[in-house]
Amino acid sequence: MSARIDELQTFALIARTGSLATASRELGVAPSTVTKQLQALERRLGVRLVHRTTRRVVLTELGRRYRQRVDRLLEELTDMDAEIRDLHAA
Questions:
Q1: CA torsion angle for 60, 57, 34, 69 (degrees, to 10)?
Q2: Is 48 within 8 Å of 72 (Cβ atoms)?
Q3: Residue 59: enclosing H or E segment and its boundaries?
Q4: Which pTM value belongs to this model?
Q5: Are 56 and 63 in contact (CB under 8 A)?
Q6: 90 pLDDT exceeds 90?
Q7: What does 3-50 look like in DSSP terms, one character per residue?
Q8: Neighbours of 71 (CB within 10 A)
Q9: How far apart are CA 62 and CA 82, in angstroms?
Q10: Tens of pLDDT, residues 44-55
Q11: Beta bridge pairs of residue 57
């Protein structure tokens, strides 16, 4: 499950930055790691989420739709973590 969450976080960052290289810098991982995570996600889904060029990536229509759901999911996970930490601290 953790690998899937990593893939989703990587995809969300690629979508936000429009760049595999920028995503890898922000995540502090090698560019090949970002590429492999994106490829694994696309392979698991059986669809292309981004069009890659030498300078940038552009979301496909399915990629845009998927990003909306991924963003909501990641936000919910963040909120859930914060809630549990707050409850524990209280």
A1: -40
A2: no
A3: strand 57-59
A4: 0.88
A5: no
A6: no
A7: HHHHHHHHHHHHHHHS-HHHHHHHHTS-HHHHHHHHHHHHHHHTS--E
A8: 15
A9: 30
A10: 999 999 998 878
A11: 52
